[in-house]
Amino acid sequence: MLKILSRLTSRKRTEIRDARRIYQETMAQSRKPAFYGDDLCPDSTDGRMEILCMHLSTIMFALRAHGDTGAKLTQAIYDVMIQDFDVALREEGLSDTGVSRRIKPLATMFFTRAKSYADAFEATEDTQGLVKAIIEEYVCNPGKPDGFADYTVNFLNNLQAQSLGAIAQGELDFPKFH
User: Fold this and answer.
1) Which domains, and CATH codes, for the chain?
2) What are the pLDDT digits (tens) for 124-157?
3) What is the pLDDT of residues 61-88, one digit of tens each?
4) What CA–CA distance (Å, rounded) separates 90 from 158?
5) How many whole angstroms separate alpha carbon 56 and alpha carbon 74?
6) For range 48-65, the mean pLDDT
7) 35 with 54: CB under 8 angstroms?
8) Is the pLDDT of residue 103 over 60?
């Protein structure tokens, strides 16, 4: 009985460990100054959230190609993200009720963005244009969506060329953003 429990909990820990590694790498990439500034994404809480959503949505879409294991890792990444939001909100001094009220809209925002990116990535024609429209709507100030769209599509292509093992190890091949 203990062996069965050990296998079940260690499997979950592996997914969570991998998800944390992916999340930490993604968070570090999302905080790079190159994404923020005039004619780019505003360097604000909302702007940083948009860049994080852009990255995580792309990673989660790429994990779809890896079947059940990719789905489990996607769920673990989502769980780690929500846990990070919880910690950040508590550090701001919010109470339990304040945290729960703030997390729900953040989760809804994330799902809205993730669905938009997934729909664009699944399109057989003009994926680049659809991603550009998402960027214009959510991410950046008008006028500079092309760089973000190029970056996002290139990032997806890089992820699709990687093995699940490489992604799980946090070896994310982020393209250069310019």
Assistant:
1) 11-168 (1.10.357)
2) 788 989 999 999 998 876 667 889 999 999 999 9
3) 999 999 999 999 999 999 999 888 877 7
4) 35
5) 9
6) 96
7) no
8) yes
Name 54's Cβ contacts closer than 8 Å, sequence gap at least 6. 30, 113, 117, 135, 139, 148, 152
Query: pTM for this one?
Result: 0.87
- Do the beta carbons of residue 41 and residue 51 sit within 8 Å? yes
Residue 97 half-sphere exposure, CB side, CA atoms within 13 Å? Answer: 0
Residues in CB range of 74: below 8 A, 6 or more apart: 60, 63, 64
Q: What share of the chain is helix, strand, coil (3-state, %, to 5)?
A: 80, 0, 20
What is residue 138's DSSP assignment? I
Confidence at residue 18, expressed as pLDDT on a 0 to 100 scale:
96
Tokens for 94, please give them: 């919010």
Q: Is 36 helix (H, G, I), strand (E, B) or coil?
A: strand
